[in-house]
Amino acid sequence: MSLVVGSIAFDTIKNIHGKRERIVGGSSTYYAYAASLFENPKVVGVVGEDFPEEIIGEMGDRGIDTKGIETEKGKTFFWEGEYSDDFSERTSLKTELNVFEHFNPKIPDDYKEEKIVFLANIAPELQQKVIEQTGKDRYFIMDTMNLWINISREKLMETIKSVNGIIINDEEAKMLTGEHYLFEAAKQIKSLGPEFVLIKKGEHGSMLYFEDKFFVLPPYPKEVVIDPTGAGDSYAGGFVGFLNNEDKINALSLKKGMVYGTIVSSFTIEDFGIERLRKLKREDVENRLKEYKEMINF
Ligand code: AMP
Questions:
Q1: Number of domains the chain is built from
Q2: What value does the mean pLDDT of the chain take?
Q3: In the predicted model, what is the mean pLDDT of residues 189-205?
Q4: Cα 235 to Cα 206: distance, rounded to the nearest angstrom
């Protein structure tokens, strides 16, 4: 099973289709809903007393292990974001850490054997605390965001050095390296330490750099995007969730994982927040996968 450490949040999201206030979000929430289509992910995180118990219950019903989610006095992490009308840009309007401010991830003892540890988007120093607690022989895959590249670059570099793989979006890859050509950016990030670099390119698909080779996948074509929030985290959930069940992490399993990430995230963007993921079944994923296979077959 995989272990994820990341944010569990309330989000306010504004885009061309409307505004949703204080809906459930967070990097590990999206990850866990997506990964639970394949396995029983374990979540370590913190929520405030205002977080709905029914969501924790629903996670449990989906096979997500929520024992590592602590409830602290105070308010849940809050993030507000606004998208440009063509979704090409996202502005973070508010980030209120609340209970997250003093979050010190504690990995339960029976969570320390998990094959893959996904370090979802949180401060790089917290990601490092997880690496220290779980021991170096896990397979670590990390995510990050522009905020940490801006304010915590050095710590972020240290984390990148200690992980096996990194999943990052195109803008972040460019910011991190100062390189505009993505193939070159991927090579540079790999030279920092990880054995694979996976770059998500939104509506342009995703690409992998592993063992000195590139692999590029198109997206599943969606004409209408309702809300891209969490697409990256649910891509990671589909990718790692699938990988968790494979005997070996190699070029083939990484590529197949990318296909699942692509398909799962194409559902996330069909509705605001986690709404589409809450209803999603493995069968829906497999049906769309058949269509996707036909699309890329030549
Ligand atoms: P994504 O669209 O995949 O990049 O992820 C969106 C999620 O990231 C939202 O649900 C937010 O709650 C969460 N998020 C935004 N800013 C942060 C942050 N600074 N730390 C952790 N999670 C965040």
A1: 1
A2: 96
A3: 96
A4: 10
